Amino acid sequence: MITREPGSERVSPEVFEHLVQLAALELNPEEAEYLRREMNGQLTAIRELEAIQVPEGLPITSHGVPYTPDISQPLRQDRLQPSARAEDILAQAPEVEERYIVVPDIPRTELE
Amino acid sequence: MNQALCDLPAYRIVAGVKRGDFSAAEVLESTLARIEAVEGRPPGLEGEPADGIGVHAFISLTPERARAQAQAVDQALSRGEDPGPLAGVPLAVKDIFCLAGTPSTAGSRILRNFVAPYSATPAARLERAGAVTVGKTNLDEFTFGSSNESSAFQPSPRNPWDPTRVPGGSSGGSAAALAAGMAALSLGTDTAGSIRQPAAFCGVVGMKPTYGRVSRYGLIAFASSIDCPGPMARNVTDAALMLGCIAGPDSFDATSAQVPVPDYTAGLEQGVRGLRIGLSPDYARLKFPDPASGELREQPIAAEAQAAVEQAAQALAAAGAEIIEGVPMPNTQYGVPAYFVISRVEAASNLHRYDGVKYGYRFEGEVADLLELYRKSRGRGFGPQPKLRILMGMYVSGAQYEKRYYERALRVRTLIRQDFEQAFDPAGAYRVDCLLTATTPSTAFELGAIYGDSVLMQYADLLTVPADHAGVPAISLPAGLDRSGLPLGLQLLGPDFSEARLLRVGRSFELATGEQSWRSVHPPVLAGVSHG
Q1: Are B173 and B201 in contact (CB under 8 A)?
Q2: What is the enclosing helix (H) or strand (E) of B309?
Q3: How many other C-beta atoms lie within 10 A of the C-beta of residue B253?
Q4: Which of A108, B21, B83, B520 is disulfide-compatible with B130, CB 3.0–4.6 A?
Q5: Contacts of residue A60 in chain B, CB cutoff 8 Å?
Q6: What pLDDT sits at residue A7?
Q7: Could you tell me if residue A74 is inside a domain?
């Protein structure tokens, strides 16, 4: 277990509960306790990044390998290509009715 | 010595099948007999204990598919046709790849019943090249781990060198299957070290190609800016053969690079004379958690791991390479902290698609509305590691933290990339052709020793993750056994698209150490099985 500096930023139970709602997860109490503890452990490791001098104006890297035009894929024609696998794909859905995927009621809020 | 057909290198299987020394069907039957002898009980979702004897490398076996493919190879040969460069080679596919008609689970309960309607490009290319798919190998759930213990399918794979130890991960089932002779090739993936770390732990070869070298189409996504499919094999020549079959552009993956694919086997024997191979002190001593206390502190990697690097440098120097010491790679130790941020953000985004609606597991009970269906399906379908990555990814990318964490991590990624660019710069101070490091800070750890501590587990990738951030290719090679008889791994890192050079250096290392006694030691799990 990573030791933590006193006063280091922690994921509070309130913030954690908010994230669980956003993530659409249902957790039991032991699981929630474990996950929040691990998140705080990871934050301690992540705080190592704060020790680095990042030069002003240093660009971000979103892919390690630079995608120059000569090694990039050309754009494909925007053309309709029917899939031969529609039935196989539909067959994976847990509930289907007349080729529609069925879900329970969709929650909605009345606009004022 | 007579070898079982299943223990032959892939290139010798191909030559033997094409010459008619034996058939693809005979190679397959030898492989299936080995699986029967060492695999043990298949894993399941109910947490079955290990049987104490098995390797448990596979989630599912595909003997019918394999028999049809082997028959097709033999029939093509009897018609005088070329069945392809991998004719009759037994292949294990990591269960993170879609393979048409097979359960493709990602090691997760949430995909327990998902049958892929199509095949991933690299898997399809291997099958078209004549490979014979014997099964789908176990892995950490969604690849999230370095030990395979997080798989929903238990028992998780054992290390064939010591069944009380992990095979590494996340491509642990693949590495274990190769080491135990249950396949000659395996298709793995590497996002922080998931090909190289298990290859090192199980004494096999694993290569993470340059990002974009191999298509990701049909790979169940984790961190899309980093995920790399790549070859795993028992020797360098086989890895080269396999890479040649899977590399190259693919119209279904816009990030697959339009770079010509050389014949990776052609220059393998050219040696290392004239090559400059770098050693970096920043891969030998760096900040990571103390194995005993967990405290983050600067310390050396395991003495035997570092000794293997130094001996390899001597062997390569004797073969004609120039060894360049003291190459600075100062941002190596920030690889794991930056990865904690970047990979979690991408994982959270990629895992939103699992909702119990379109495919995979759906909660079967009554629910009030769609939102409750999502929560219950995801709550029961995901194990702890995917949940942790989703929550962490959402936290560090939240509007109030984004600059502090995510943006900073992406800039640190630039610094890591610059370390490599400066080391490899042909006009720079060091001008190295490749770097030589240990693959892992230690050899395979015991089952249960780390699992559950997500920080210690992530630091198993300490020496492998920088290449993933930078996109550069890297290979892990078996380098001997430690005093407990566990495999040690060596890593070679090169500039973008330098796979042919890394394979050539790897082959030179094999030749230079070919007579060493450890090369004839077999994993203990093979004691008592037929070698003839």
Answers
A1: no
A2: helix B303-318
A3: 18
A4: B83
A5: 407, 410-411, 413-414
A6: 46
A7: no
Distance from CA of A78 to the nearest CA of B (A): 13
Residue B75: C-alpha distances to residues B20, B81, B129 (Å) = 12, 9, 15
B170 is catalytic: yes
Which element (helix H / strand E) includes B314?
Answer: helix B303-318
Amino acid at B384: P
Report, as an integer, the average pLDDT of B21-49.
Answer: 94
Residue in the structure block whose two tokens are 């099985």: B529
Q: Classify residue A104: in a domain, yes or no.
A: no
First to last CA, chain A: 50
B251 catalytic residue (yes or no): no
When divided into structural domains, chain A yields a total of 1
What is the total residue count of chain A?
A: 112
Complex ipTM more than 0.85, yes or no: yes
Residue B330 vs residues B202, B227, B443: alpha-carbon distances, Å? 29, 24, 24
Question: What CATH number is given to the structural domain containing A47?
Answer: 1.10.20
Q: Of the given ranges (B38-52, B380-394, B484-498, B502-516), which has the lowest mean pLDDT?
A: B38-52
Give the confidence band of B331 by pLDDT, cuts at 50, 70, 90. Answer: very high
For residue B494, the one-letter residue type is G
- Our answer to whether residue B147 is catalytic in this structure is no
Please indicate whether, in this complex, the C-beta atoms of B296 and A44 are within 8 angstroms of each other.
yes
The structural domains of chain B, ordered by start, are 5-273+502-525 (3.90.1300.10)
Q: Check if the beta carbon of residue B231 is closer than 8 Å to that of residue B86.
A: no
Q: Specify the amino acid at residue A15.
A: V
Does residue B441 carry a pLDDT above 80? yes
Domain span at residue A26? Answer: 6-52
CB contact under 8 A, A41 and B470: no
- Asked if residue A25 belongs to a domain, the reply is yes
In a domain, A86, yes or no: no
Distances (CA, A) of B263 to A30, B156, B243, B248, B496: 53, 36, 9, 12, 17
What pLDDT, in 10s, does the model give residues B82-94? 999 999 999 999 9
C-alpha atoms less than 13 angstroms from C-alpha of B209 in its C-beta half-sphere: 32
Please give the structure tokens belonging to residue B363.
């909660």
pLDDT averaged over every residue in chain B: 96
**Stretch A53-73: mean pLDDT:** 90
Q: In terms of pTM, does the model score above 0.90?
A: yes
